Protein 1
Amino acid sequence: MSIRSCHRLLKTGACVCFFLPTLLQSQVIIRERVEIRPQLDTPSVPITKQLLMTINSSVLRLDLSFSGSLQPDYPSNFYISRNACQSGGLIFLRDPGRSISVPALASAYSYGATIWAFAGASATFMLYLDGELLARHDYPNLPAKARYFFPHYQQLFESFTFVAGDTLIAEGEQATFDINGVTNAVCAPSVWHPELQMTLTIVSGQELGGFIDENGDTLGSSVIRKGSEMKQIRFYAKPPKPAAGGGSAGTGNLVVIETASKGITRTVKIRIKPGLKIKLVVADKTLQPLGDSDNKDNPDLTEKETRPKVIDFSRVKTTTVTVKVVDSEEKPVSDYDFTMRALVRDASGGHDHSEGRPTGRFVTEENDTLAEVEGKTGADGEAKYTYLCSGIGGIDSIFVQGRTPYDTATATITLKVGDLELMTDGEHYDLVGAYGESGVNSQHRVNHYGTPRLIQKLKALADSVHADSSYVLRINDMSLQYGGPFDTENDWDTPHENHREGVNADVSYTDARGKRIREKYFELKTNKLGGKVKSHGHFHVTYR
Ligand SMILES: [Zn+2]
Ligand SMILES: [Zn+2]
């Protein structure tokens, strides 16, 4: 400190600096910083006993024991830090005898101390990993004001990970697991440590397969490999048994592999599914939903609306559904039991409601009609059923499950009246009655599908009555997108007579401005264009 700077400090009142050397003269012996690099720790020497596995839970601890006196006016500290990436910890010392701990996540750390002591003090540093002493440094008779650097430890810690989740393979297939691991440099990608040894053992399910090497040679149910020799392990599942009804029975198909290194274990599971294949074949991918003429209670329009309370399966379209089971060589598997269910896709076919939706049915040998059947393949590996479709426009779905949760097959059948188009807005009519409009409970958001002929005729009719009388027609329900029963009360009954084939439209008695349309007039106009009208609360218009 120069005289000039001391004068400046005096002006600010920090007069202590001026008198300090005099006051402490007898105690301060060496004023230069002394650096000591202990020779026993050199970075180039690998410390093999410190190749310890850590997986996020290890703690690196540095203890300092100290005898003597610290200089109270200078900051002494000791520290442990993770190289390059981030610092670990730093403690400023007031009292000697401290401990500092950091999570041992990296592979290399440095640690050290700056001690401003009175001469004659002594210090001991001890480095622990999870309580195990890794290194000890003794410094008796320290010079005053000493600074100690300890070297970095390369490859001090390592870690490994298995990039392998639980896996599903079929009999006869292979599973390959990557085993990544071992950081040997901080902030560097994980690489194998060549000396790290790993053990893989099949602890359960040995009868289902075993380890194989890159050439397909069998390695048995336990392998020990060094990192330099293995980055992957393969498991080979035994092929299915060729006997009839073969394949695994669906139980005991779990293989558990335990991987271990440095006392740390992890488990990988492999599920083996039978190598058998279930196929579901439907003869017709598209069927007609129930049409106007299938409305047996009311095939022709009458004043009275009557409804079938359930789908009349004597009127729905049918197709053949075949369950086929083959082994891995495509040979038929007989006596294979399965469950098959008839389902429907929610909201399909323009029905924006799902509750209670009818499904199709299978006809059993006893002539029952069931939504779920249990069956078995015959000598040809097949089982055939007559399928009665749900009758509702939309997607019927069939699901078959074999002996395990993994042996499944599905098929869909579209129930649809062909060639229906959506009527678009026009100048002389309003399209009304969609779900979401005020007062509409029918859960069908799109209710204006029809044949091209119906749409063309309705537009002509609207133009015609507008030209005569300036009416703007209010066109309500026509048909749903796929046709079929139009259940305005959302109960899969059919309150709408017809409206199933895209040839009907309901037109309100009053026009868009509230004007009542005379019935005789409207019928005349409809007939003139080749259509028919029935009046029952509204005009029910038909153009076939
Ligand atoms: Zn519906
Ligand atoms: Zn109608």
Note: The mean pLDDT is 76.
Protein 2
Amino acid sequence: MPPRRRDGAYVHNAGTSSESEGFDDIDDGNYGDKRKNKGKGKAKDTGKGSQDKGKGKSKEQAYAWEATYTRSWDTVQEDEGGSLQTAVEDLLARGRRRRLLEPSSAIRRTIIRHLMLLLDLSSSMLDRDLRPSRFDLTLEYSRQFIVEWFDQNPLGQIGIVGMRGGLGERIGDMSGNPQDVLKAISDRRRLQPDGDPSLQNAIDMARGSMSHLPTHSSREILIIYGSLTTCDPGNIHDTLDACINDKIRVSVVSLAAEMKICRELANKTGGVFGVVMNEDHYKELMFELVPPPAQRSASRLTGGSTNFSADLMMMGFPTRLPDTSPLSLCVCHSQLKGEGFLCPRCKAQVCDVPTDCDICGLMIVSSPHLARSYHHLFPVKPYQAVTETGLSPSPKCHGCSHSFPEKPSATGSDPTTADVISPLGRYRCPDCEKDFCADCDVFVHDVLHVCPGCQ
Ligand SMILES: [Zn+2]
Ligand SMILES: [Zn+2]
Ligand SMILES: [Zn+2]
Ligand SMILES: [Zn+2]
């Protein structure tokens, strides 16, 4: 630091800039701004600075714990005519914008996924900063997450581990059947939060149940963490190293605040870290993990040597036993069952697909499952909002044959949504150049995953 003399402004500025650099990533530079204004000591500058800051803050979403009570009916705004049309269109536009940001080219993804869901069941989950309570909201979102996850990843399997009383607690075994997984968290009383969480115990337990998995499948851990402490028996950094070695991707959704170890777990293993601001943001953070992860981030972690050649893997399509077949022992539960599937290689009877055969280790999938996973590899390109019709526009939507409105509506005039909302209600596929209505656009991209015009 230069000596304090003569040119006071120079000294101050130099001091501030070096200090503010260090704090940039913590406070979005707000800290730096404040210091600079203080250093200059000019009333005009300070006033302007604080004004800017105030404006920026009001634009941001408030944290749930900062906000007063909210009235959900106030968030839906009617337009002048008393209609909810604009509110609905605004929601659609938000979805479209998110889709436009997604990569539309084919990238390599891991479609055979194994996820361990680690739920914090410590007493901090009883906090009511998220309504109705952290615990109830987590259970509700977990259910929705599991349903959506299996819909998008029919070849995947989910297991659930709870963190309670300083221990990891096995709540649901790894299973490819959504009903089994949902059943594991259906009993609210059995999961009643209590005591302190232990990150290390829970991660070790999750790691143990994924250690047998073959290398072509992804290993993922999603931690929902409400506490700000962890009570571990050993060094958690050893566990972190073990996760990196096992190529386990750890993602953390924190309900309270950022913890360094949580951030580090996510960063070093290629996962995602996020702190929940409010109920909607919580859901967004969680559902970001539904689409299969791109494979490049995994290769980046291993030190840059990208292996582009794909490994072939064996899969078997099982024979479904007819309902009238005689009872026989299944290999997964050792129970007498009349229905199930036969492993094509060793003829063992299993209850559910997809699964790995307990006898010969062959991966057993049904062909519809395999086909359903396919769309992630070749996503439908986002449709473009049409602002001007050409010479002879098609009068009807190519998807549902609904007639397009004759004259443009006024909603497209808002400059922030103009590029995502078409005033004509038309959305055009860049490949087949057919026009679709807004409803069909959402349906094609969220449910169908195939453009009806291109087929
Ligand atoms: Zn069985
Ligand atoms: Zn078999
Ligand atoms: Zn349509
Ligand atoms: Zn098309």
Note: The longest strand covers residues 167-175.
Protein 3
Amino acid sequence: MMADSVPYNARIREFKLSDYDRVISLWLECNLIRSKESLSKEMLRIETERNPRLFLVCEDSSGRIIGTVVGAWDGWRGWIYKLAVAKDYRRGGLASRLVDEVTNRLRQSGAQIIRGYVKKENDASLSLFAKLGFTRMDDVVLVTLGRQ
Ligand SMILES: CC(C)(COP(=O)(O)OP(=O)(O)OC[C@H]1O[C@@H](n2cnc3c(N)ncnc32)[C@H](O)[C@@H]1OP(=O)(O)O)[C@@H](O)C(=O)NCCC(=O)NCCS
């Protein structure tokens, strides 16, 4: 399904390393990371080099980063990470637009299957992905080595 457009005063573009502090602020606000130390600038630099077209931000006219999404293509599947929209811009269709854009880019990279991790209790995100046509996989359990 086609998503709504971005807020009139904002634009979606690819991440630049100079966005680092503003992106971290948004991810902290959205509880997507625990602390700034958990995601260094160097880690984001490596990620951007690996998938340069798949790390997207939305910037408003004042230069504030109000949305992000990070796509990853591992050769098997496309993955969606770090979907975030600033609280005062929510329910305007921005996350849907970001998912649409990264999904198109992942498909152009060759991904036929695109997945994302959503916490069970995250009703907003589950509703969003359902609305965009993603189906829920209840038969899969996530396993991990290292910190949860
Ligand atoms: C989840 C999140 C990205 C949604 O961003 P958004 O820009 O508000 O989403 P959209 O406006 O594109 O919403 C599209 C649809 O998703 C659903 N949705 C979004 N937020 C919702 C909420 N709080 N409650 C219920 N449904 C919601 C609705 O169906 C909505 O359509 P509608 O507004 O026409 O009813 C945002 O709430 C956020 O950043 N949350 C914190 C971080 C997070 O949880 N990220 C996802 C990690 S998996």
Note: The chain is about 30% helix and 20% strand.
